[in-house]
Structure formats: C-alpha cells, structure tokens
Design brief:
Layout (H helix, E strand, L loop, with lengths): L1 E4 L10 E7 L3 E6 L4 E5 L6 E9 L12 E7 L12 E11 L2 E11 L8 E6 L2
Antiparallel strand pairs: 1-9, 2-3, 3-4, 4-9, 5-8, 6-7, 7-8
Length: 126
C-alpha cells in the first residue's frame, strides 16, 4: 500500500460505513463508496505520538454525512506533572455528523528535531 497526504476536511460530505480505533496508534475510516483513510503517527527515531483520548463516540461518525472535519494543534499547554518532554504537540482532530461530535486528541513528543504530529492520509491500494 502507498499513502497520500490528505486534508481531513476532505471528509466533509462523505458518509462513513466504519470508523475503528486501532489501539492508541491509529483510527481507520472507510466511506460507503470504499474510500479508506487512516489517522496515525509515522514514527521517527527520537519521537513518539499516541492517541491520548477520544471524546465522543466514533460510531456517531458512521451512517450520516460528515458535516465538520478540522484539525488544530497546541504546543503550549502540557500537563507539567505528567509530561516533561523537551518538545511536544497536542493534535486535535474534530469530526461531526448530525448524530454527534468526536474529538481525537493526540500527544506527540520529541527531542525537538522530529515531527510530533499525527497525520491523516488516504490509503490507496498499490
């Protein structure tokens, strides 16, 4: 398989038939017309990034068109007692249908020289 970068906003108007969290490492989205995307972190040697939590029910994203899909980042507000990383990034993926809202919160950290951000990519069969 090869991956192509995709803007999460491209989900707007799509209807998902499945949305599955794969541990703390990824979420897989499949539309009713067979398109597949993954939200995940492409690991680097001196960095990490995992799903911290999911607010809302991923199943609210299934069966109705996506009406909101956006991403935001924050590198200013760590939890000081829990996180002592030199460099960090919170990434928030916000998705919604008429059935409900979901926010996927990722925490990435590194020594300051590597990506700390989860990405969203369309999966294309090779």
């Amino acid at each position: 398989m090869s991956y192509n970068y995709e803007d999460v906003a491209n989900l707007i108007g799509k209807t998902l038939r499945s949305c599955v969290q794969e541990g703390r490492d990824a979420i897989r989205f499949e539309s009713d017309n067979g398109e597949v995307w993954k939200m995940f972190y492409e690991s680097d040697c001196c960095a990490s990034c995992q799903i911290e939590d999911v607010v809302g029910d991923l199943q609210d994203l299934v069966g109705s068109p996506i009406i909101m899909a956006e991403v935001s980042e924050n590198s200013n507000d760590p939890k000081p007692s829990e996180y002592s990383d030199k460099s960090f990034t919170w990434t928030f993926y916000k998705l919604a249908t008429v059935k409900g809202y979901v926010t996927v919160r990722w925490y990435g950290s590194s020594n300051g020289y590597y990506s700390e951000t989860a990405c969203f990519r369309r999966v294309c069969p090779s």
